[in-house]
Amino acid sequence: MPSLADKTVLDLGCGFGHFARSCIDQGAAKVVGIDISSNMITYAETENSHQNIEYICAPIEEADLGERKFDLIVSSLAIHYIKDYDRVVKKIYHLLRQHGEFIFSIEHPIVTARKGMGNWVKDKDGEKLHWAVDHYQLEGERGRHWVIDGVITYHRTISTLVNTLIENGFILEKIVEPQSTDYGLEQMPKLINEQRRPSFLVIKSKR
Amino acid sequence: MPSLADKTVLDLGCGFGHFARSCIDQGAAKVVGIDISSNMITYAETENSHQNIEYICAPIEEADLGERKFDLIVSSLAIHYIKDYDRVVKKIYHLLRQHGEFIFSIEHPIVTARKGMGNWVKDKDGEKLHWAVDHYQLEGERGRHWVIDGVITYHRTISTLVNTLIENGFILEKIVEPQSTDYGLEQMPKLINEQRRPSFLVIKSKR
User: Of these four, A201, B5, B115, B184, which has the most CB atoms within 10 Å of its CB?
Assistant: First the structure.
């Protein structure tokens, strides 16, 4: 993460506003948080309000920010709910100042590729044998269970995720496939599975 | 592929020299082909010789090209045999002219991740059920069978492959995960498996 001092930040899929609030705590000048969930925005406005944070309840694709410009646009585990990735990338590019950064995390394509659930293949004793990959090049809808059933995520290949950024003018800065740390393993031993297959992908790019 | 007219090209892992020869046919000014196999270099010098092609028998890491500079450096399915990727990336950067391009293909990390062979998991009738991924974050040696037994390939994550380029000054231009085409499927029906998991990764970057 770059320094947030005096930065204007846009958080796409801000949820309960915890990250928006932490940006202010780290010196950000102004934060706009957008989320499709009115429950989350209501919570954010109650529990994480601040004079320099503005919350907007809207789908990421539809939020109207006019000609406002940001130094940093972040999105944590929201872009895989977006149907039209190219359109959102174009929008984000437009909303960034020159040299502004876009950092987002999503479910890793290795995890989203195979249709259906239960992609840890286990033996008869329930031991995990390996992770199952299939349908990798077939981009599009994948059903998932998340809090409520029926949430749709979209699988895209690594090449689509990266090339769409580059084709729209972004410079790729870094790709991270988060690993379990010693501390994390102590707190949550099942994170050892992150060594076996990556759950998440973080992509950092610059306008 | 960029236009090759009047370009100087370096082919790392040139094998029998077919690509080196095709570069000349496409107008390249000069091609240097390097391969560790003396059999392949002998064949290349016999069957694909040309006054503007120079073949060198050496490991990619050791080949001494001094201060020569190239417009394009290519490598087809050779970099996964390299133990020290960072060192080779630095060498390639040094050998490229400003704005020169480096295009290479390797086995896809999805394919190299799991230790051991037989990563298509099949049912009792031999039908392919899915591709098995494991050990993704454990980079390093993977045994493979290729022509002769005992050839060692090295597994690296997508993030390592991409970030090492960027950290060494390259600008990422494109990632390709080749898919089966209609023509390819006609010639070789089993290419349909490329839709299920990508075998190869091509990365194009620019100095």
Answer: A201
